[in-house]
Amino acid sequence: MIILISPAKTLDLDTPVTDAMTEPRFGADAARIARAAAKLAPTDLSALMHISAGLAELNAKRFKGFRKAPERPAIRTFAGDVYRGFDAASADEDTITFAQDHLRILSGLYGVLRPLDAIRPYRLEMGTSWAPKGGKLTDYWGKKVACAVLADLKTGDSGVLLSLASNEYYAAVGPHLPKKGVQVIAPDFRVRTAKGLQFQSFTAKVARGTMARWVCEERIADAAALPHFDRDGWTFDSDGGAPGRPLFIRD
Fold first, then answer.
1. pLDDT, mean over the chain
2. What's the total number of domains in the chain?
């Protein structure tokens, strides 16, 4: 089983790390994209990424200084809601080792990352309507990200791709998957409210990270085991959902 998650806009650049880092598969591509992005003015970045002038200035500086910026493991650098759910800081070494083999972080800059791959500070969403040679980032990456994920999937024997990534990032993988041989499972997380079952973005993001951590901790390899996910009050609803879209509910 290969698990897909999205990166995060929020970064932890201060917590000390001691992990032995690995090289990103598409490090040369990341450097190429960063060099091209370094030529963009802060106003361009603000418009492209819909961010404030302050954030645009920060990211312009990051792209210009990208080559010399310090590196950190991806799983300990991204610090958004998904990573709050995964909580790498409390994970033991065996869980991180399993994650290194089975967890993949999709990235607009790096394409696809393993948890311990070394990354430099950046912000560049996969859905950005810009790429070094024109078009969108998904055009730049083409089939490369999906082929890398498929190569990792072939090292196992389940053929299960557990997508806990957002639609924006899954768009770099989904359209390029073969019609046969891959079982894609994309859980749906809903909260029971007085108005019925509702999707809550923050809650769902944390749940995705929590499920990714659970899979890595429990060494889950079979899709049949996924309904047993019960962390943080989540329960599987056997009457809801759809094929490839299991429903998990929390009161």
1. 96
2. 1
